[in-house]
Structure formats: structure tokens, C-alpha cells
């Protein structure tokens, strides 16, 4: 799946080909949201799984 | 479960048992409880990182990509571009319940790896157990490739290549000192007057930079001449500063955007939604603009700290939060009543937690020398205003109260005591100590202000702004007083002075001729000959370290380059020079004297038993030392029984004063790159344990392997047999203004004796004696042997017990066995 | 040879060849008779990346040469790495046990803290 | 000296010296090179007083070796 197809992808208004991909992580000590800039057309790697909240 | 059972116990019962950590859990808010437990501790347990803590590989990859791309740019500009690339692209995160954001890694369990500091640290990282992210094999390959790219190209590699080869080899032997002569690791002061007192946001600074550029361009486009030539380089530096400030604003805006995304798309709780929107507004406002509220003020400060640390792995955290955040606290809590005091305490507590979680990969010597923590985050509280009036305020108290609730080992506080401090503030200080935090340490403000004027010529008003630049050393926060970078490589393993005087400069541990050949000690005719050899070794050792760090400091703008730090320094913004450049700085250097008191005790023992009583010959002593006292236990005990520092005994105290005055004389002969002095500052952190198997047997009765004394001017553990007043009297013979920059004193007190109101009055009387004698520092451990032994037996149950190690506190379970035992060995003084 | 040249030689042997870029395979290999397993190896306390000094051989020695060169007189020990092959060294003496507990602190004579040395102790 | 755990026998110096109980007492920690047990050793007599379990027995001026290294005040 491409980033742009995910509901967790938030394109930049000034450049929709790039955007933030948000992930939810629950580690042994805390829960947090993390984000990094990605290309809309790139494939989401398996390690970055989708999440629901 | 033990925890569930403790929650059932009443606060009164827990107070009786002095189990303060359980009380803290009961008293703190749910938010603080969550955030406190959420922290991944980055301090090493002894010398190893805790399970689950991993090195961050995303940041060094981003940095290396862009740094190599801009290979023809000058140092500061090249680094600004590479660091801006990190800020624009690194993963960022927001922890549930957090109101403050910003971290030096990409996930909460990661350690920052500053790859451009030292190849040998990079190599160490490759070999380090447990820190590689999964999958380990892929990470090892990535690290090996990165290391290959940086081999010989880091800041320390560059300094080591131009050092005198003899100095380089001897310094890097690990025997005489530690630290690194680069601003890639070090203790950078912050120009708080510029950022907070003058209320400059990053956009305000950019405006100042634009003005400076315009002025410089007027000249570079005008009449040619030699005076305009340096400006071309400075213009590039200004570009670099501006670029990194703009990237920093974008970085903050990334947090704002994430907070809004969470609030609008994922968060269902309306209260948390509101918090996230406030967080977003905060990050949209700071660091671009000066703060308008306490939350913005704390967030601004935290962003500055994090951004400076992403640029370089800073080993200290100079700060004076009750002074610089007071205006916004006062406005929010007292004047406009925008938030309650409890809400302010939550913010202050979280501000401490955000600092506690910061950590980077440090070399093993740093981990062993700072066991349990990742750097000396010693925050300064109290003190006086520039006009000499009392600076303590309700935020001072709030910090002291928040500390007892979050109970973090780092940051710790150091309190600037002066005669005008109100009793209610002193009670809060005492409560922190009584609750076993080991902090605040107490600093004698009038003495230290005078000291700053004496050694470095800081004007009175500037001296009064001082903060701890690391554990102990005061540094003003003003334009010309603030020291941008204290490179820790002027940290002397002082016990080597007497060791080398005994062995003609030869080091039997590292098997190398280190110091000058001051003669075969067996042939010394009297104590004066021996002392003269000690003076020569002392001069050689301090010269070697200072040469190294002076060169590192001088070449740093070329070998490293600090665009962000420079952009936050008034004088760098004005001049266009790297902040680390000595130009425009008054100078505030000091030599940290590890393992210092062993010199006085060893010299006194030799004087007594070899030259005065003639019970043993020097040859016998040398033989016993070279065989680590094996088979000479009776003789060793004789040397232990010789006069020892800390018992108000002039025989040894006079030798201590002679030693200090020789160093003080020499401190004015050696100069820093600003032309100022290099006074001694005896203290140890946990270097006394790191060096325990590196310093050979000594005439004070110590063997190779034994912990050295716990440091500063603290007497040897268990050797202060005449009580606390004798300790204070010995220490009071030192001139705390003219004999050195500061002097650390550890004392253990009995928590039982100091319980209740009576305990407070006893402690207050002790502090009065301490102040009357003119000592500049004292810090206390107030945890019983019983608790510490129980913690050794059953560490799981005592995870939250904190102890004062030396210039810092640590969780008892995070320090090595030898360090734990060394703390238990310290005398508990009844006062 | 002047003072500077002499120390330059030491510096090169301490920080030149010994720290050049190496492959993962080179880094991971610990020979059966490695310097780190020898009781005459003292780990460096500053750069804990596996480098150390020989307590017997001095600078000028070369245990990789054929025949090996052993210099035992001098003022500076021979720099070597924990995984340097010491099979040809006449002074190699395997330690009875080594201590790989990294939660304790520096002990140049006994402690080996490299990941690659884990499991090499008794 | 003889290790009380594995009976390894050698001169005291062959046992790895670890550190002291306190500087003014003649009790020190040493480690047996054969079984690696930590031993509390009386350096005056060169004899093992007891085994010290680093994970169990507290150590210091008396802990774990209670009565062996009293405060010499």
C-alpha cells in the first residue's frame, strides 16, 4: 500500500506529494504518536503497520 | 505485589519508615505519575546501558547524507545544512499526557549518537553490547559503514593529528585525564540573558542577524582593504546561524502539526484535545517568539536545550530555571491567574522529566565516571539578583516541591545560599535533602561571587548571575561572561601527581613513562625533595591537559562548528564568529581535580613515617607500592594510621594547603585561550571508581583496585574520625576564594537524627557553622546504611532509592557494586 | 631521531593502522589466541573500543611479521587490539578467566567489555 | 591461601584483588581465579573469612561481613 492511500497519511498543503505519516506506538513504558515526512507515492514498509484508535 | 501493598499504606506509616519514593507516588498527579514511569533511563548501570535502550541510527544517517553532499562548504555552514536536514526529516513523537515536547532521538528509548565527535567513540559503539536496534546484524552493518565513512574525519581525530604526538599519546592513554577536546561533547553554557532576560525569540534573533549582514555587506561592497576580508567568512557564519534558526522554527512547527493531527483525528477525550491544541499553539509561538506563558517559557527553554544537544552531545545542563522562568510563572499564577499553582507544579515536574529522559551514547569512561546519569544536569536555584537582593521566589519553592514528587536523579539542584534566604525556602531545601534526593547541594553565594571576581575578573553584577556550568563551577550568564564550551579534557586524575613523584614519572599501570623524570624517590633526602618532585609532576600534568583543551577550543570552529549554539549567543550573533571562538569571552576555565585529597594524605604519610619517624625507608615503601602492599598488611595499616585530612590536624592540613597554593600559583601561569586563569576545582563525580584500577597503590594505604576517595575536599571514607566539626574546620582552613575555583564536600547525615523540627534546627545550625567558616559547597546523603544494604540485597524493591554520588545524584541500583560500597563506607556524621 | 619523531611513531602505531576502517567480518573475528584473551593485555581506559597495550612487548615489536619481532625494552607498550591474532607471540599467556561484566568498571588487567568477548570468559 | 568454595590453593597474590572493605581494616575482597567466587580475605593472616555473594550479601563497613571490618574509630 502507498502512503497516500493510508488514512494516517497527512499531505502537506503546499506540497501534497509529501506528507506526514503518523504511527501509534505502545512500548513497555509509554504510549505515543510518532511521525515522519514521507513521499505520498512510496510504499509503506511492513514494519510501519496501520493502527486504529 | 509490593507496589500494590505500598499504595495501601498510609502516608504517615511511609514517613515513619522514610520510604519517600512511595509517598511521592501517592502525592503526585496522575499525569506526572504516568510521565515519570514512561521514561527510559539513559544513564548506564555501572558501565552498561539498561536493557531496551538503543542507539538512534536515523539521525547519524540523515546527518551523514547531507554533510557529505555539502563537502565544499565551510564548517559552520556545512553543519547547519546537515543539522537542518535532521530537523526537517527526523521522526518526532508526542507521549500521551505530555504538555511539553522535544527529544534528542527519534523514539523515547533511543540514545543520540553524534557521529562526528570521535572515531574511537564510534568504534566503541560498534562493539557495545545490547545497544544495537533490531535486527542486530543489519544495524551492525549500517554502523560499520557509517564508521568507515567517518574514520579519521571526526573532530577528535582532527585535534589528535595536530596535538604534539607525545601529548596525544599520553592523554589518550586514559591514565591522567578524560574528556574530549571538542565541542562535539562538552558543557555548553546558555546565554540566558540574551534569550530570556532580553526576551529574544528566534525571529527576533534572525532580525538581528539580518541587520548584521546588512552592515557587513555595506563594508564588503565598499572600499577594499584588509579589514573587510574576515567579513566574508562571517557572512557565511551568519547565513548558517539564520538557516539553523529557521530550521528550528520548522522543527517546532512539526510538533504543532502533529499535536493538531492527533487532536483532530485520533483523540477522543475532550480535555486531552484541549491540551493538544494548547501544545500546538505553544509550539507555533515558541521558539519563533518570546514566551507569553509559563508553558511557553518552559517549552522554549526545552527546545533550546534539545536543539543544542542534537547539534552536539552536551554533557551538562547549566540552568537557573526559578530565575529565568519566574516572570511567566508570576504572570500566570499570581497576576493573571491563568493557571493554578497545582497546574504550574505539573508543568514544572514535567519540565524536569523531559530533561531526565535526555541521553546520548557516551564513551565508557563517561558512563563509568557518571554512573546512573547521562550528564551533569545541575540546575541552579536561589541566589541573588544583579542588585544583590534575594532572588528566591515561589517558583524556587515550586521546583523544590516538584522534585520531591517526580524524584528524578537528573536534573539535580544546587542551591545558592546567602544570608538573606527566607526560612520557609530553607525548609523546602531541607525537605528535599531529608527525602533522600541528595540534592540540592548548598553553595555559598557570597563566597562564590567573590571567587568569580577574583579568578576571572567578572564584574560584580555579572558574577551575581552565575549558574553551575557543570557539577560545581560557577559561570555568569552574560554576554561576555558566559562560557560557550567547557571541554572536559581539563579533568585531571590528580592522584597520579603523587604516584609519579614516587616512581620517577613512570606509570606501572599503563606501562609508560608519563611524567617528567623527577628522580629516584629512594634517594630523596628529605620531605622537601619529595614535595618538589610532586610540584613538578603537578605542573606537568596540568600543563598537558590544558595544552590539549586549549588547542581543542582554539581549533573547534574549524574542526566542528556550532551554528545553533552561536545563534543563541549575543556576542556570536553580533560578531559573526562561532560562539566557541574565544574572541569576546572573558574566560571562565577550571581544571577539575579528580582524586585530589589522596595527594595530601599520601604526602603526609610519607613525611611522617619515612622522613620524621623513620619507621620505613623510601625504598621499602616503593617496593610495597609496586607489589600492591602484598604481604605488607601491617605496614599498610601503619600508613593508614598516619595523619589524615578531615580531622582538624595541622600536620596534614598544612600539607593540603601547601599543595593547593602551589596549584593556585601555577593556575595563573597557565592561561586559557582568552588569556585568563585556570584554577583548580577538586571534585570527582564517580571518577574515583572509574580510576580505581588505573591508579596504583598509594602511601595513604590504598591498593590498586580500591575506590579512591569520594572527592573534592571530602576526607577519605571512614577516615574522618573526629566528627563533623573537625571536618568543617579542616575544610575551613582552605581559602575558598583564593585557593581554587570551588571545593566539593560530601557529608552523610543520619535520617533518624534529622527527623522532625529538631532535625531541621540541627541542620540549620550546621549550615550556619559551614557558612561562618567560609566553605563554598556541601552536599548530603541522608539515606541510612540499613536502606542501602536492603537495596543491595533486593534491588527490585528499591528501584527508586536515590543517593548523592559526588557532584550528582543517581539511583542506587544504577551504580556499580564498588560505587555502592564506597558510599556505604562514608562516615555518617552525627551533628 | 628527535623527541617529536619518536612520539610520532608511537602515535602512528597507537592511532594509525589500528583504527583504519574494517569490515564486519574483521571486526567480529576473535582468534583462538587473541590478545584480549592474554593476561599480558591491558585494555585502554580512554578508548574502550578494544584497543590496549601489551604489558611485556614495547613499541617496535611486530607479532604479525614472519618471523615476529619482539622488543621488550622501551618506555611505551605495544598497542594492540582485543582481537589481534597472537598465535605467533612468544609471550602469549592465556588468562585463567576474564571478566566481561560491563556493569562494573574499568579494570585494564582483567575486564574485557567488548560485545565480541562475551562468552569468552570461563 | 585456599578457596573455601573450590579448594583452589595458591599464594594470596594469585587471587584477583578486587577492593577493600574499608581502607582502615585488613579485610579485602578477592576473587578466586578458578571458580571466580568473591572471597572476604583477612590480609593480615592471608586467610579466607567467608564467601561474599555479590548479588546477595551487602558489602561495606560491616554488611555481608558483619563483625569482620569494624569501624576503627
Task: Describe this entry's structure for a reader.
The complex is a heterotetramer of chains A (53), B (831), C (122) and D (73). Chain A is mainly β. Chain A has a domain at 3-39. Helices cover 0% and strands 47% of the residues of chain A. Chain A is built from no helices and three strands. Chain A has strands at residues 9-12, 15-26, 31-39. Chain A has a three-stranded antiparallel beta sheet, with no helix packed on it. In chain A, strand 1 (9-12) and strand 2 form a beta hairpin. Chain A is globular, with a radius of gyration of 12 Å. The radius of gyration of chain B is 26 Å and the shape is globular. Chain B starts with a helix and ends with a strand. Chain B has 36 helices and 21 strands. Among the domains of chain B are: 2-38, no CATH class; 486-744, no CATH class. Helices cover 51% and strands 8% of the residues of chain B. By secondary structure, chain B is of the alpha/beta class. Chain C has 122 residues and is of the alpha+beta class. Chain C has two helices and three strands. The model of chain C has no long low-confidence stretch (mean pLDDT 89). By secondary structure, chain D is mainly β. In chain D, 0% of the residues lie in helices and 29% in strands. Chain D has strands spanning 16-20, 27-31, 38-42, 47-52. Chain D has a four-stranded antiparallel beta sheet with strand order 1-2-3-4, with no helix packed on it. Chain D is globular, with a radius of gyration of 11 Å. Residues 54-73 of chain D have low confidence and may be disordered. Classes of the chains: A mainly beta (53), B alpha/beta (831), C alpha+beta (122), D mainly beta (73). At the B-C interface, helix 7, helix 8, helix 10, helix 19 and strand 14 of B face helix 1 and strand 2 of C. Strand 3 (31-39) of chain A pairs antiparallel with strand 2 of chain B.
Secondary structure elements and pairings:
The complex is a heterotetramer of chains A (53), B (831), C (122) and D (73).
Chain A: E1 9-12, E2 15-26, E3 31-39
Chain B: H1 2-8, H2 11-16, H3 20-27, H4 30-38, E1 54-55, H5 58-69, H6 75-89, E2 92-95, E3 110-111, H7 119-127, H8 136-150, H9 155-162, H10 165-171, E4 177-178, E5 185-186, H11 192-197, H12 202-220, H13 229-265, H14 270-285, H15 294-311, E6 313-314, H16 321-324, H17 326-335, H18 341-356, H19 364-369, E7 378-382, H20 394-406, E8 412-417, H21 423-434, E9 441-444, H22 445-456, H23 460-463, E10 467-468, E11 474-475, E12 491-493, H24 495-502, E13 506-507, E14 512-513, H25 527-559, H26 563-567, H27 570-575, E15 591-594, H28 597-612, H29 618-626, H30 633-641, H31 650-669, E16 680-682, H32 687-690, H33 724-732, E17 746-749, H34 756-772, E18 777-781, H35 785-793, E19 802-804, E20 809-811, H36 817-825, E21 828-829
Parallel strand pairs in B: 1-3, 5-6, 7-8, 8-9, 12-15, 15-16, 17-18, 17-21
Antiparallel strand pairs in B: 4-12, 9-18, 10-11, 13-14, 19-20
Chain C: H1 3-15, H2 24-28, E1 41-43, E2 51-58, E3 77-81
Antiparallel strand pairs in C: 1-2, 2-3
